């Protein structure tokens, strides 16, 4: 299933008509199980590159850096948590500094216990186990947002990885006397800095945009917030990268935005699974064409044989439409433009699952719905979310796995 970039990345989809033929941005769950996008092991001295002599300086920069990571304690209230820190960042890092000398994700020290945030004010609430670095299985009661008529649960597991690079966030805010909800799952790669930045900042940016331009559509505000945030990550030279799957809810309208290969699945009351997003991987024909047009190379389904996702936050080395090597490329190798849809909630809509690729590497949308739906009525949303991630690990997922389940039309 490919990603189809266009001049307008926002599509309005009405819930009254939900067939994939009528609305190509809403897909039937035909996506097969897929291979992990984790970076391949590769020798940086043998990177597959173009023969264009003008690009040799860029390719040479991929090979000359010191890639040894070190661990540093992060400041303030999170002093008990350690995360990997690279050397002092330079304005334009090279791709191998992200993935290490052998093209692998850099590992750091074993993470410590989770941290939880408290509500930010009387008019806003924040559920943020996103700052934790290890496993997060919180068997507390479901979180109910009565004004939004929904209940949700969130969980994250590091799985077989040494570090959990995933982050997630659930936040609500009252804007112009109307409640608004924001949910996001951020699948980091190369490290945690971008996924952590997203969990701490993206929802704030979205709420700010919505406050300043309340007449704009929910989808357009979500898209603008994501574009603004990716630019901020570039300007601040935040290292690493992250995919994102985000859900915004206001009144009877929801918007879903995807950047990368995480997914959002909607289940209706007849048990049908609807895939609400497009996949941004360099195995998709449209993404391959975009990368090649930008003077990039796709080898074994990866950009330069290393990076297996074609759109993401961060990955500043691959944002080649600007910076040191902008004149040598015809655009970004890793895109930052999300795919966004907006639709009206229907009484037939039951729940939405936001999940990273560690979940969907081993489960199709149909399989996910078949697992989640019967459990929601028996044990609640939070426990179901935790069980879902454990099930993904039993099925053989080797990645971090994170998910948020949002049950719609909840009556308190």
* Number of strand segments: 18
Fraction of residues in helix: 10-25%
Return the average pLDDT rounded to an integer. Answer: 76
Poorly predicted spans: 1-48, 62-124, 129-133
Estimate the strand proportion: 15-25%
Return the CATH class. Alpha Beta
Rg value: 20 Å
CATH homology group: PPM-type phosphatase domain
CATH architecture: 4-Layer Sandwich
CATH overall fold name: Phosphatase 2c, domain 1
Number of H/I helices: 8
Order of helices and strands: EHEEHEEEEEHHEEEEHEEEEEHHHE
Overall, the morphology is: globular
Structural class: alpha+beta
Largest sheet: 8 strands, mixed
| CA-CA gap between termini | 38 Å
Number of domains: 1
Subcellular location: Membrane
Pfam families: PP2C
Family: Belongs to the PP2C family.
Keywords: Hydrolase, Metal-binding, Protein phosphatase
Summarize the structure.
This protein is α+β, with helices and mostly antiparallel strands and 412 residues long. The protein contains 8 helices and 18 strands. It has helices at residues 56-61, 95-99, 193-212, 218-235, 285-293, 357-360, 365-379, 381-394; strands spanning 10-12, 70-73, 82-85, 124-127, 143-145, 150-157, 166-175, 178-189, 241-250, 253-259, 263-268, 273-275, 298-299, 302-303, 313-314, 339-344, 349-355, 401-407.
Blueprint (SSEs and pairs):
Layout: E1 10-12, H1 56-61, E2 70-73, E3 82-85, H2 95-99, E4 124-127, E5 143-145, E6 150-157, E7 166-175, E8 178-189, H3 193-212, H4 218-235, E9 241-250, E10 253-259, E11 263-268, E12 273-275, H5 285-293, E13 298-299, E14 302-303, E15 313-314, E16 339-344, E17 349-355, H6 357-360, H7 365-379, H8 381-394, E18 401-407
Parallel strand pairs: 1-16
Antiparallel strand pairs: 2-3, 4-7, 5-6, 6-18, 7-8, 8-9, 9-10, 9-15, 10-16, 11-12, 11-17, 13-14, 17-18
Helix pairs in contact: 3-4, 7-8
